[in-house]
Structure formats: C-alpha cells, structure tokens
Amino acid sequence: MTYTKEIYINVSIGSTRIAILENGALVELYIDIADHKRMVGNIYKGKIQNVIPGMQAAFIDIGYEINSFLPFSEIGNSDNIKNLSFSDDDDDENSKKTNQTSTFDPEKDLKINDNIFVQVIKEPFSGKGPRVTTDISFAGSLLVLVPNQNYIGISKKISDKYERRRLREIIKRLSIKNFGIILRTSAEGKNDSEIEKDLKKTLQQWEKLNSTKNKEIPYLAYKDEETPNQVIRDLLSDDTSKVYIDCKKTYNKIYDYLKNTNKKHLDKLSYYKKKGSIFEVNDIENQIQKSLKTKVWLKSGGHLAIEHTEAMVVIDVNSGRFIGNKKHEDNSLKVNLEAAREISKQLRLRDIGGLIVIDFIDLMKEENRKKVYYELRNNLKRDRAKVSLAEFSNFGLLEMTRQRVRLDLLHTLYEDCPTCKGLGLIPSKDTMLTSIECWLKTFKTKSRDRRFAIHLNPKVYDHFKETKHSELKGFMWKNWLLIELKVDENLAPHQFKVFSKRQKKFVTEEV
C-alpha cells in the first residue's frame, strides 16, 4: 500500500485543530484553545521567588498566575544563568558540549529576587505551574541554535554516515562561533544555501532576545511560533503530500511562512473551499471521538481499557470476543502483539504523558513476553516524544514513561464533571438515604425542628417511595420526626434539599 501523509487544519471560534493523517488514519492531533495561550517554547525573563533545596528546585515568577517550576537538573553551569547557555535533546550522541565544568551551586548561588532567563518546556497542568529550564534553544526549520556553546549535533534519525558527514562539513564551513548547532531530520538532503538561510533566520531570533532591555520584570522575551506554524515547521516534510486549511487568514499566514522558509512546499498548500466541515468530510471528527473513549476495540475482537488517574495512566488489555485456537498461550500472544501496536498509536494520538502502566494478558513463556516487549518498543520508535520502556515486571506489568509537553487530548477537550467532580461516579440511591439520615441526626442535635420536607431528584424519589417506605416510616417513629418527600427536577441524583416547616426555609446548608 502506498504511504500517504496529509495535514488538515481546521480553524473555528473556539479552537484551531491540526490533524495528521497517515494512510487516512488519524495519528496526531494538535489543539489550540482560543482562551488558552500556549507557553511551551516561550522564553521569559523572570524573578526567583523561592529556592527549596529539599525539592531540588526553584520557583520563578514569569508573569503566570502560578510560579513556574525550575528543577536544579534543568539548570546548567553559571554561564547558563548569566549568558543563557543552551542545550537540546536532539543532539548527536557523540557531540561534545563545552563549559560543563562549573563551580555554580544552585542551592547557594540562586538568590531570591534575582532575575533569570528561562524557557518553558512543559505546559501548566492540574494546578501546577509551567516547567522551565535555563538551557534555552531556538528552533528553525532545519536546525536548532544553542547560544554560548560550541558543538555540532545531527539528528539520530539521519542514519546515513555520508549524509551526516556532509552536513557536518557544511556547518564547519559556516564558522559560527559561540553557538552549538543541531541539524534536524528535515536538514537531510538540503544544500549549503538552504541551511545557511535557516541559520541566519534563527540567529535573528537570538539577536531579538538580546535586544529586550529596560522592561519591567517578569516579561515575555521571546514568543515561539503559533501552533499551525510549529506543526508546519516540524512536520511538513518531503513525504507530506498535502496540507488542507479551511481558514483563509491562516492559509495566508502559513503561505507567507513557507515563502520565507521553505518555498518548495508551497504547492502542497490547499485552501479548503468546499461545503461542510473539513474534519467531518474526511472522517477526522469520528476518529477524534473514538480516541476519547475509554475502550478501544482491536481487530481481533480484544480491546484496550485506558484509564487516567492523578498519578499515572493505566492500560488494561483484554481478549474480549477473541476466540482463536485451543492454545491459550498462542491466543494471548496474538492479542498482546496487536495491543502493543495499538497502544503505541493511542499514546501518540491521545498525547498521553507521564507514567504509564500496561497490564497485558498473562503469558507463561518468557520468549513470548519478549516478543510483546520488542513489538511495543519497535512501534514506539515512530513517536516524536521521548519514551522510556522497561521490560515485564514480576507481576506481569510493563511500565513506561512518555514525555509530557502539553495537556493530553482528554484534558484538552474536557473539563471535570461538576456533578461527580471528575470521579466518574455518583453516590448510589441507598448511599443517598444514608447521607440524608446522617444529615437529619446531626441537625437534630442543633435544632428543635421536627417537621421537614426533603426534596429529591425524581429517580431517587421513586426509589425511596417504592423500596424504602417502611424503613423511612420506622426512622420517623424512632426519631420523632415527620418527613415528607417531594420531587425537584432541578436536583441532580446525588443532591437533596431539606425544608424546615417550622422555620419556613431551606436549612440544608446549616449542617
């Protein structure tokens, strides 16, 4: 089957959505919510608010409502603080960075109220501020610029040794001093003039940062490209066949961006003028909705159950409707291998980060567990995020971590339910009865009221009337109370309101 890669950009009142499709299947989704300003990649001049040796971290005021978090591990040497020394994760494994020896001690040398340049590497999430680093870098279309360093790095995804040598020689001929330069995968096959042009453009970003003076701290010193431009910069490659955009303004912005950075891809841009939603027509909307469900069905009949918790994401693999042959081990292996491929796809699509625990179907043979491990590892190589994977534990669980840069898809598109507070569950009807009984007993110790009207959700009211009539009557006799049940369609199933007939008002909040 011929490989096709397409990018679809949908702009609406509430958000900008960018979908990456490979052979018609949605593999990545980027969403910019209108009210949420993306921070990753931005550089701020902030003020140190606190230094906590016990946490091995400092907190920096960058103008956000919550102070940013700067781990000591994200602080380079003293030059990083004074001169903005930079590094990048896409560095060639044999590259040698300079200025690594230093007497800088974060615990002693970071002072409260001192000013500091930092770059955001993780979006704020779940009540936590953004994570920042002093190792700042500037990303161009073909390379990454690392000021105050002196090394050449080449993306590990460029495997051809002759191409790596050619690219290294181009950078050497440019003779750029006091800058580390990392050539990205997109630099493969590019000539001297193309690389030099991108380098000059990226150098202008550095010069612009250095020109920011006499501003009230904290302030935004450098703003990274908007999400559509970032996606075009990072993902528009030679194997991309088309980019469809349904907003003329965004189309013009991206057209101008490519005109200045990569003219050869201009003919791939297409303004979508047809009727109907660009995502609906191309089956993207349907694929997004499937990616938000807890249960993911496999072709074999098995399924994945993906559950988010505060500490981690748990993925359970089930055989489901899969029957297979009579050999249980072979059946389990087949489902597990298919699940490994689907898990790598779902992690990338849902942009799940942090700690992930996978409970595959139990396998007795060590060789089969190895097959599942290597299948997952090989499929994760296509993921642009950094991934660390451990082999099966003694309990048959596989643990891994995936780089978290922004909110995962679920938390980007949804908010916690105000009824269940994100739990996904509400009290049962019998639990409601217990809660009401406890409320009445507590209120009885504070007041002489004995006559109440209890307002309930219609379903809870019906349940009480049909199944708890005698228990309610016994409770009233035992406690010398007169209780009348009433229906209130405005109440949720887990809510109740108590009206005191003596005081002629609702007294629910008095307990």
Question: Explain this structure to me?
Answer:
Strands 4, 5, 6, 7, 8 and 13 form a 6-stranded antiparallel beta sheet that branches. Helix 9 runs parallel beside helix 10. By secondary structure, the chain is of the alpha+beta class. Helix content is 31%, strand content 26%. The N and C termini lie far apart (67 Å). The model is unreliable at 82-101 (pLDDT under 50).
What is the helical fraction, as a range of percent? 25-40%
**Gyration radius from CA atoms, angstroms:** 29 Å
For the largest beta-sheet, the strand count, sense and barrel status come to: 6 strands, antiparallel
The residue-averaged pLDDT reads 85
Number of strands: 25
Share of β-strand residues = 25-35%
Count up the helices: 14
| Structural classification | alpha+beta
**3D shape:** globular
Distance between the termini: 67 Å
Low-confidence stretches: 82-101
In short:
With 511 residues, the protein is an alpha+beta fold.
Note the topology.
Elements: E1 5-11, E2 15-22, E3 25-33, E4 43-52, E5 57-61, E6 68-71, H1 78-83, H2 106-109, E7 115-122, E8 131-133, E9 138-139, E10 143-147, E11 152-154, H3 161-174, E12 179-183, H4 192-210, E13 219-222, H5 227-235, E14 240-245, H6 248-261, E15 269-271, H7 278-281, H8 284-291, E16 295-297, E17 303-308, E18 313-318, H9 328-350, E19 354-359, H10 366-380, E20 387-389, E21 397-402, H11 409-413, H12 429-444, E22 451-456, H13 458-467, H14 469-479, E23 482-487, E24 496-500, E25 505-506
Parallel strand pairs: 1-14, 11-12, 14-15, 18-19, 22-23
Antiparallel strand pairs: 1-2, 2-3, 4-5, 4-7, 4-13, 5-6, 7-8, 9-10, 10-12, 16-17, 17-18, 19-21, 20-21, 22-24, 24-25
Helix pairs in contact: 9-10
